[in-house]
Amino acid sequence: MLDVTIEHDVPATMRDGVVLRADVYRPAADGPWPVLLTRLPYGKNMPMLAGAVDPVGKARNGFIVVIQDTRGRFASDGDWEPWTFESDDGYDTVRWAASLPGSNGSVGMFGASYFGNTQWMAALAKPPELKAIAPMITWSEPDDGLFARGGASELGISVSWSLTQGIDTLMRRHADDPMARGQALKALVDDIDAIATTTYWELPAGHHPAFDRHGVPELGFERSRREPGWSASCRVAGRQSEVDLPSLHSGGWYDIFCQGTLDNFSAMQAAGRPATLIMGPWSHINRMGYIGEVNYGLAASTELLGFRGRYADLELGWFRRWLTPDAPEVAEAPQSELPPVLLFVMGINQWREEQEWPLARAVDTDLFLRAGGRLAFDAPQAAEATDAFTYDPADPVPTTGGAVLMSNEFPAGPLDQAPVEARPDVLVYTSDVLAEDLEVTGRVRAHLTAATDAPTTDWVVRLCDVDTNGVSRNVVDGIVRAVASPGEFTEQTVDLWSTSHVFRAGHRLRVHVTSSCFPRWDRNLNTGEPIEQGTRSRPAQQQIAHDPTRLSRIVLPVVPAPATRQ
Hints:
Elements: E1 4-13, E2 19-27, E3 33-40, H1 47-53, H2 55-60, E4 64-69, H3 86-98, E5 103-112, H4 114-125, E6 130-136, E7 148-149, E8 152-153, H5 155-173, H6 178-193, H7 209-214, H8 221-226, E9 247-254, H9 258-270, E10 275-283, E11 290-291, E12 294-295, H10 311-323, H11 328-331, E13 341-345, E14 350-354, E15 363-370, E16 374-376, E17 387-391, H12 418-421, E18 427-430, E19 438-452, E20 456-466, E21 472-483, E22 490-503, E23 508-514, E24 540-545, E25 553-559
Parallel strand pairs: 3-4, 3-5, 5-6, 6-9, 9-10, 10-13
Antiparallel strand pairs: 1-2, 2-4, 7-8, 11-12, 13-14, 15-16, 15-25, 17-24, 18-23, 19-22, 19-24, 19-25, 20-21, 20-23
Helix pairs in contact: 3-4, 5-6
């Protein structure tokens, strides 16, 4: 291990003259060294990031590590506009980092979430010195997990993230007026503290009053609707093939950007790029193997990865291969320490190596919603009565677990769904007890034949695992915002995203159908008013059909049993 020197607030001048600042960690020995760069809006000195980014550990292993505050944040100059400048600033910063004293001229980028996306934006700009990227828990299409999902706003992350990032905005705005700064911060913190009881509930959801009240930039849902082309500033979907670089993707089954991580990997693999995928039983902020109410075991954590080693060490080995390919330690190392795909299969709690995603051997299998709350593999052969419920936006179904990133009152992961299932506005369908294990690995979708008396409404579908004690815990869910002809039955397709989960023998599958999951997703007010203006709400009468000509079903990617056993 090498000693490390640290240089703080090293300036880099962008093409428009704005100066961004970074901390640079160098091995205290002769180089040259490859460079690892991350660009983030959360403060390069933020204590909680030290463990996740670990610049000292990386530098001790022979890398120059650069951690830069993005434009308008903390030590960097300029104005804070989420996403807008990350492509140009990323390009300029990569070129600058490659020219630092002691650099070998090769740069890799690493980091999670926002600073996973800054990697993609830099890579799409094609700085010649960028040789590899390792985005963790990062979206692909911003309208599928970041700004929105199925047409509904991702209100849970939008409000909490935007207001929290507003703290630095107000600190900078009132830097010369301590009294004004204190008053502004108190008002903002009061709204953050009341987020679950008051702030999330404010209307209109599509032009949230809190953002105007404090004068802080919002995550992007509102701007993306005002300026449709602007969301390209953080969109990866459809553009991955433009990136001719090796990539290491890691994500979690209960992460808000789970599907985006999978989609990015699949696109890179399809384009013939060297790509590696790791998916664990993790959320956005928890990768320790115990999430929600389920302990998946210490081997599920990034500290062990099924006894393959620490994720941080494997990531460094991966970077070394691409940034110093001629180094003796790389030439003598095994060709690859990681398979193309490493999945954690929940339920049996095992890591499994694969060659692809999605799995070609998975078979789409229909599970039908039936009368009497049944869930069955056989379709109805005769007429069955429709099921009905009333959805009232004034009393929405509360978010209870899932792939969420919200205020702390709403934890991610698998949670007991009993309070949700006891509500009259949640239809519950349950299978017979399974005689043998059933593995579901891949993307889950639901097709509902549904009707409403409202001009627009939402449909939410959730897949759950009911254990031998009768406890029902969520696996995946999804939403679709539908424009309706009142009273007319139409097919509504709900994308529940992906999972890898074995429903064990003796367990049962369960499906919820409802019309809200608040405050994760904004409430459909059932009036047809634009989300940017709507403040009035009305109850909606909802119906789900399940007869031979109006089927309602969930489609599961079932992996045949022999292939699940090692």
